[in-house]
Amino acid sequence: MERRFYSLKMDVYIKGGRWRLDDPVNARGEPIENLWLFVQGKSVELHERLRIPIAQPGEPLDIGFAGTALTPVVSERVASIFREIAPDDVQLFPVDVDGQTNPFFILNVARELRCIDETACKEVQKFSADEDLHADRAGEYRSVIGLRIDKSKVAEARVFRLWGWPPPIVLDEELKDALEANGIFGGKFEEV
To answer: DSSP secondary-structure letter at 79?
Structure first.
């Protein structure tokens, strides 16, 4: 049976109002040096515990995306599923979320794969070398609509980011099913 994969997205239709998380800060309330640290699909070293301020109060979510870089922040329930099913693909960093006593974690997907199936996607636009602003990103994706991946390039990965197009978190069906079976709140899935 062929494996199926899904992108994990923010569920923007939360009844009762969703909370909105701000950019991570250090214990002194100072912005971290690199906001994009946790969305690059690479392992990171973290030398201090971070804090997530609340930008807009609302219902706490099991899966949230904080600040400008959409840093994934997950509840203990979600963290335990990633720990069990995809321990080689993720890092989980305890984080203090303002006003919350329950444990939360920054979810760093520490695996990046080059597997976008450009011919199967609805539309793909890339950065070119002659662009002044983004010449350093030549070959990476400016936009991907109707994302599809080449499953033959995934190997044993359970969850990963995409080379050249880091916004989506892509996960396999077993991980998606485990999250859904535990009634996660705040995320939704779209097959890729």
So the answer is: H
What is the bridge-based pairing of β-strands 63-66 and 5-10? unpaired
| CA contacts within 13 A on the Cβ side of 83 | 11
Q: Which two tokens stand for residue 81?
A: 């599923």
Q: What is the DSSP string of 134-186?
A: TGGGTTSEEEEES--B-GGG-TT-SEEEETTEEEEEEEEHHHHHHHHHTT-SS
Residue of 191, 4, 176 lying closest to 78 (CA atoms): 176
Residue 15 has pLDDT above 70, yes or no: no
Q: Residue 130 is which amino acid?
A: D
Please, which pLDDT band fits residue 58 given cuts at 50, 70 and 90? confident
